[in-house]
Task: inverse folding
């Protein structure tokens, strides 16, 4: 594998559609209020993608250093684990990506709030926290992903900060109704993480990575998974009915229905791996249909 292909593999491009879903929904909420700016939209997408790639590099590094990927890993091989990237190379990649993420963050915030010093400070703080959260999910002795807090952080960053933060960039306001689509994107993102954790439950247990499936068992994890996706659907429908917009986005939940039927019968952890793509792409499809409903009147 050549160097470019190695770094592309480490960036885990399949995770990127999920990461931008919150921005698409947040921009749509802004459009519903009559606010939209193309340059802000593009910068928000670039910033989010840079955070996700940083998180992927850091996750690869953190799990690799701890030896989490060395024993019974079920999913795709990691760059560090497989020897495709050295510890030094991956640390350099993380440092470069931090610089890129900071650059996009500053550009985004200055474009959105050039005349409001307080908002610049607040959002620079949020950007810094996002970068730190991306790194310390698996990196360090107190990595929160190893202590059962991954679900909380994914919900807050993929749902709350991504959707509501993106909308605020355009409108500089937050409406209570916007929490519903934020919840939808947030819990669907958590569902992807939960699938990842169910897939890796044996390996994580051996490595002392305390995810929810490790702490409470597979039976709990499956019930939790069903609950997350039911909440996602209910929140989206509530928003559409109150806002009086099309329910076209329900199409995105059709694959989820069949997905849940498969989840109920899975016995082998290996079978969870393809289901990650189903939920991640369904979340992305939801965001695209939501965007189309608002911008194109579908």
Result:
């Amino acid at each position: 594998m050549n160097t470019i292909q190695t770094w592309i593999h480490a960036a885990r491009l399949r995770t990127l559609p999920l990461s931008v879903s919150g921005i698409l929904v947040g921009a749509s909420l802004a459009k519903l209020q009559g606010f939209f700016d193309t340059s802000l939209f593009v910068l928000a997408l670039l910033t989010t993608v840079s955070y996700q790639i940083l998180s992927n590099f850091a996750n690869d590094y953190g799990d690799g250093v701890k030896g989490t990927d060395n024993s019974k890993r079920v999913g795709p091989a990691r760059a560090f684990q497989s020897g495709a990237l050295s510890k030094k190379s991956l640390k350099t990649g993380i440092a470069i990506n931090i610089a890129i993420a900071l650059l996009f963050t500053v550009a985004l915030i200055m474009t959105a709030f050039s005349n409001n010093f307080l908002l610049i400070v607040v959002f620079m703080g949020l950007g810094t926290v996002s970068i730190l959260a991306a790194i310390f999910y698996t990196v360090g002795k107190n990595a929160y992903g190893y202590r059962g807090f991954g679900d909380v952080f994914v919900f807050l960053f993929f749902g709350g900060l991504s959707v509501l933060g993106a909308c605020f960039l355009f409108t500089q306001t937050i409406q209570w109704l916007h929490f519903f689509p934020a919840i939808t994107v947030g819990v669907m993102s958590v569902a992807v993480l939960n699938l990842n954790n169910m897939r890796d439950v044996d390996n994580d247990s051996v490595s002392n990575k305390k995810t929810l499936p490790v702490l409470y068992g597979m039976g709990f994890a499956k019930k939790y998974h069903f609950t997350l996706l039911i909440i996602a659907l209910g929140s989206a429908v509530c928003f559409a009915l109150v806002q009086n917009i099309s329910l076209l986005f329900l199409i995105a939940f059709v694959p989820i229905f069949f997905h849940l039927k498969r989840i109920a019968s899975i016995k082998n952890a290996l079978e969870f791996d393809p289901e990650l793509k189903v939920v991640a792409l369904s979340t992305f499809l939801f965001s695209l249909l939501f965007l189309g409903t608002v911008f194109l009147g579908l």
Notes: The first helix runs from residue 3 to 11. The chain has 13 helices and no strands. The CA atoms of residues 191 and 225 lie 6 Å apart. The chain has one domain: 3-295.
